[in-house]
User: Which sequence fits this backbone?
């Protein structure tokens, strides 16, 4: 999808949040702010929002000299959800439909998106889990179940730290030998990288690869050849989160987008209510 | 006060809201957006936020050809609060301390600030009135009462449409012959102009003048000579709203700022909780 005018104030806010994490030097805050404003004034709105996200965080890394401002926060979220993991696992196992419950958990985990909301805390996560378990999903989960049953090669595109533990809960319900989990090729916002896959046990569960790009989404032209081949070969792609939706919503592959619609631009594009829990197949 | 980095995303959002009101032509939305982004990338942050506000709305007027995008909305808010007026007046008259109640009403009215929040509706206004009547005020209302008792020349700087009817309720508690009510010199956001003072009965109650400027605040250098003389002569100035606070907070005059702190930049600058109801004397 293209970048909308409403994405722009959000970019500026996101840039401020991120540069403040990277450094306390206000001169650099100002440089980043002015740089992002100038870039946004000339940006190509036909690009998807994560392309601008990549530019913003590159600028912050260059000007602050900090290559991973979210490093500590990412660890905290991974550790926090790892502590919840045994309970969540039990809730899935004891539920009447473990696969359904696991999909809902995976969508709930998408609330941990610090690009959209820097103020995510434990109580928001707990509330989102409860909401997700009883919500009317937007989309058709039965079609996803059918697709999983017939799939031979499942590519699971991860999104954020913390959220990856929720993904693990869903992946544990899938045939492990058919699944490859994908992380970003480098640090960007609180998105998952290979280090997070290791930290959260994902690498012990299934094959994990990085996509060779640090766009906070999946822009195929910017990904590695190896990833593009896996993407082309997969017969089912599970794409988590807004960034993957924003960059892959026009794709002709068999993709299921699992996410929580956290901003009005996304809910408007999908045609659902803001805040919806979504299992949407690419059209 | 100066413009903070956190004001910038708010400017962009405000520009989008306003240009969408002015025209449905998306090309003009984009021109305004790019123009505001480019201007913000080079702006002088030592200026107060309303100076940028003035620039944004000038650009919108020029590009859209619409000289008052908020015209209809301003009428709607004036009419809506005029309908509430008899009830609110009765609540003031029946209260144990009518002056205190009237000050609280005037502060409650400051919620109708479409620069800060374009989504103001009736239920928000009703809730804010009830909150204001029982809230712990930030500042010292007794000092305001003393200042009113001893004042010979009161300048009351109005802020927004709809809110002006709440101001009328307070001004009805003041000595009418000592009060001059001030409106902006031209349309800007939903700020009051002479037409609104007429529409809401303010002109029949006290002297009303415009300040000769369409900054959504009071930047003295941009105001008329006549207004500056009145400002210099007044021994009590009641300044409503965020815009007047942002532009006059450094003044050495005897000013009481009456407002609701509707954004974190303002509450941070004042040292109060976000959402506070404020009666603050200039220091």
Assistant:
């Amino acid at each position: 999808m293209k970048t909308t005018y409403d994405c722009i104030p959000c970019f500026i806010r996101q840039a401020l949040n991120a540069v403040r994490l990277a450094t306390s030097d206000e001169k650099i805050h100002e440089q980043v702010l002015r740089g992002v404003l100038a870039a946004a004034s000339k940006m190509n709105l036909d690009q998807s929002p994560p392309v601008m996200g990549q530019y913003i965080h590159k600028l912050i890394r260059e000007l602050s000299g900090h290559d991973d401002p979210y490093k500590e926060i990412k660890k905290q979220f991974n550790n926090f959800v790892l502590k919840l993991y045994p309970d969540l696992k039990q809730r899935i196992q004891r539920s009447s439909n473990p696969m359904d419950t696991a999909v809902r958990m995976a969508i709930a985990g998408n609330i941990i998106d610090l690009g959209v909301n820097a103020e995510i805390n434990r109580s928001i996560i707990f509330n989102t889990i409860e909401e997700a378990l009883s919500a009317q999903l937007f989309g058709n989960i039965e079609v996803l179940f059918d697709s999983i049953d017939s799939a031979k090669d499942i590519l699971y595109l991860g999104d954020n730290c913390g959220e990856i533990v929720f993904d693990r809960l869903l992946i544990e319900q899938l045939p492990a030998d058919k699944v490859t989990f994908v992380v970003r090729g480098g640090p960007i916002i609180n998105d998952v990288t290979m280090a997070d896959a290791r930290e959260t046990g994902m690498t012990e569960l299934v094959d994990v690869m990085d996509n060779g790009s640090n766009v906070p989404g999946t822009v195929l032209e910017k990904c590695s050849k190896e990833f593009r081949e896996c993407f082309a070969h997969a017969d089912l792609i599970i794409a988590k989160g807004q960034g993957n939706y924003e960059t892959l919503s026009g794709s002709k592959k068999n993709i299921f987008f699992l996410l929580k619609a956290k901003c009005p631009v996304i809910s408007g594009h999908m045609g659902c209510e803001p805040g919806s829990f979504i299992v949407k197949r690419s059209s």
Observations:
- The beta strands of chain B are 138-139, 154-157, 179-183, 207-210, 236-240, 255-260, 277-281.
- The first strand of chain B starts at residue 138 and ends at 139.
